[in-house]
Here is the input.
Amino acid sequence: MKYISLLVLLLFVISCGNKKESKKSKKSKPLMGLAQIHSATENVNPQYAAEVKDWEALKAVDSFFVKYRNITPNEALSNAIELKDLVKDLIDSVQPEPFNTPAINARINILYNEALRLADLTEIAAIKSGEVNLQVAKTMVAFSNVNIKINTVVAKLNFENEVDITIDFIGLDTTRLDAVSKEAVFTKREKLKSKKGFFKKGSKKRKSKVKKVNRNRTFSEEKPTLKPILKPQNSKNKFIKDEILLQEKDVKNRAKAIEK
Here is the structure.
């Protein structure tokens, strides 16, 4: 009789424990199935779309991230492996020449690391929905950084193509330029060198004439030049000349009279 009562008691305890575990599982399942709205990733500027039109791997990743804007943790985990493979294809793809830079490659590698972490969450049985949503947000931010850098590179190239000033006339430190900027600057300079009369070795520099001024004196030491008085040549001025002579004689005569 004692054994029977102990067996009944043991079965009762086990059934109560199973009910508690089932309640916990019921609570966790709705959270994993609850859709989370994420901020959309930054896109390549529509004005620069022509620069990346042949980069199919980038466009594939961009299209795949559209479904992550409103997604449940369960769906995010189920798509994580495919996302990881697409990012891996992006790394292995042939990048357009302006975008094959260390800065962009570093951002793509960061994106791949975040996609790997998201894929690793699929192997954790007791994963929480908050952890999945956080990793999805980090992965989307990493892809936004890639597109932002692409926009920056294209904007810089467009600006350099519009500027006609060469580095020979401005204080530009070429050692601080990245590979894309340096190539654009030197290409622009070579085009200018090919123009007729530009950067000739025998070209003379214009010298500006600077007038020396004695700063110790208040006024200039330059003496004014006096113009010579021209003698009247025509007959109209002869009368005036005769009158002047008569006046001079009259003055001399008066002076003699005063002396006497």
